[in-house]
Amino acid sequence: MGHMNSTDLRGPEVRRAPTDHAKNHWWMWVIAAVLVAGGVWYYRGAQAKTQAINAGAPGAPGNGMPGAFGNPVVPVVVSTAQRGDLPVYLDGLGTVTAYNTVTIRSRVDGAIVKVNFTEGQFVHEGDALVEIDPRPYQVALEQAQGQLAKDQAQLKDVQIDMERYKLLFKEGVIPQQQLDTQEASVGQSHGSIQADQAAIDSAKLNITYSHIVAPISGRVGLRLVDVGNIVHATDTTGLVVITQLQPISVIFTLPQDQLPQVMSKLHGNAQQLSVEAWDRDDTSKITSGKLATIDNQIDVTTGTYKLKAVFGNENNALFPNQFVNVHLLVDTKHNITLVPVAAIQRGPQGTYVYTAGADNVAKIQPVVVAQTTGNLVGLSSGVSAGTNVVIDGQDKLQDGTQITPTVAPLPSVATAVNAPKPSAGASAPPVKNSPATSSGGAKR
Predict the structure, then answer these.
(1) DSSP 8-state assignment for residue 225
(2) Within this chain, do residues 255 and 315 fall inside the same structural domain, yes or no?
(3) Are residues 129 and 220 in the same domain?
(4) What is residue 77's predicted lDDT score, i.e. its pLDDT?
(5) What does the alpha-carbon distance between residue 296 and residue 307 come to, in Å, rounded to a whole number?
(6) Tens digits of residue pLDDT in 6-57
(7) What is the CATH number of the domain that holds 154?
(8) Which residues contact 356 (CB under 8 A, 6 or more apart)?
(9) Torsion over CA of 177, 178, 181 and 187, rounded to 10 degrees?
(10) Domain assignment of residue 275, yes or no
(11) Which helix H or strand E contains 352, and what residues bound it?
């Protein structure tokens, strides 16, 4: 057996598993991939925005979307503030009442023989309405006339006897007592004649009452009694009702806090205060009138007082018991700044508006509201005439926001009357009228 080398005596070779460096550092490869993808996305996005700006695409400034640098440009509607006069109205709820109401009743007893009116007809004062059978009163007149003739003849007889008694008394034939008795008989005959004349007048008056005429001009209502019915002077139910519609009155109420303002204007002005009647929805003007008077007490249950206005009602637009909204003109604010009511905003800092300058940048401007009438607001300070104020799109604005303005005309006072009252934040509708400075035709 030969000698063995030491190298031949080594044990069996043990192989180690190689270290997997790529597996242990896999997250590094993921991060590198994300960074590469992000770089590619950013590069392509920036290039697309640049192309959109150059091409005027929706991503460009002035189209309401973020611009190249992320600054939003907001489209808004603006209106120019102007100087003018603004009326001051007090609003109340009213009910139309007839200026005069007459219930026609019979003043004599008898049967109705004729009705001379048509239901709903407009009648004039003195027009014949109803005729009651006058024959009983004609007979009574004839009886009274006959009794008068009898008593006149009797008076003549006693007067002749009176003259005879005077001669006999002078001759001493008859005593004084007999002469005095004859004088009393003459007086009784005079009294009978006066009673007969009164009976004649009464019969004539009853005949006149048999022909019922209209005491006022107005519209008759529904007929309450038909021909052939017997009526009495004591009946509580009338024959017909007449209401005077021209002129016509409106009774309305106002809060007691406004009483001093109305009283001062009522006593201080030579002319009557103007009053406007509007429909139930308070959207359309019906007619105009004048304030007639104020009630003499305040209703303690409601804290209001009553006022009465009179309207000519030439077109019969008002009808008794109709519900209306009443606007009483008590004052006019002169030479104040006028802006649409939609421009007014309210926040923790108070009342303010957004103004639009020449650089098309919205700015917050605090204002002081003096009066609101219809769609117009009168400002005592904060904004001057000629300033553009934002009336639509304020919810997207902040101080310093870039805007794209569209100019709308300022509503006139007359237009503000016909326009519905806007809600908070709503924009005023464009109108074709130029701004008005008159004090009439608006409601608060």
Answers:
(1) S
(2) yes
(3) yes
(4) 92
(5) 10
(6) 444 444 444 444 445 555 566 777 787 778 777 777 766 655 555 544 443 3
(7) 1.10.287.470
(8) 76, 78, 362, 388, 389, 390, 403, 405
(9) -120
(10) yes
(11) strand 350-356
One-letter amino acid identity for 255?
A: P
Sign of CA dihedral 30, 31, 34, 36: negative
What DSSP letter does each residue of 48-112 carry, written as one string?
Answer: HHHHHHHHT-TTSTTTTS--TTS--EEEEEEEE-EEEEEEEEEEEEEEEEEEEEEEE--SS-EEE
Which stretches of 105-210 are assigned E, i.e. beta strand?
Answer: 110-115, 122-123, 128-132
**CA atoms of 372 and 338, how far apart (whole Å):** 9
What predicted TM-score, i.e. pTM, was given to this entire model? 0.63
Q: In what order do the strands lie in the sheet with 110-115?
A: 211-213, 128-132, 110-115, 230-231
What DSSP assignment string belongs to 288-332?
Answer: EEEEEEEEEEEETTTTEEEEEEEE--TT----TT-EEEEEEEEEE
Encoded tokens for 145: 């006339």
Residue indicated by tokens 């008989």: 185
Would 342 be classed as within a structural domain? yes
Taking only the tens place, the pLDDT of each residue in 153-173 is 999 999 998 888 888 888 888
Regions of the chain with pLDDT less than 50: 1-19, 52-69, 414-444
Q: Which residues pair with 123 in a beta bridge?
A: 218
Q: Are 80 and 355 in contact (CB under 8 A)?
A: no
Q: Letter for the amino acid at 395?
A: D
Locate 279 and state its tokens.
């429909």
**Domain extent for 81:** 74-88+333-418
Which two tokens mark 41?
């996305």
**Closest to 444 measured CA to CA, from 415, 421, 412, 425:** 421
CA–CA dist 414, 438 (Å, integer): 8
Question: Distance between CA atoms of 339 and 416, rounded to whole angstroms?
Answer: 12
**371 and 316 housed in the same domain:** no
DSSP H/E element including 202: helix 176-209
Structure tokens that stand for 312 in this block: 């000519």
Structurally, how many domains does the chain consist of?
4
- Choose the final residue of a domain: 331, 366, 398: 331
Gap between the Cα atoms of 96 and 81, Å rounded:
39
In a shared domain, residues 129 and 231: yes
Burial 362-386 (b: 16+ CB within 10 A, else e): bbeeebebebbbbbbbbbeebbeee
Closest of 75, 44, 39 to residue 58, by C-alpha: 75
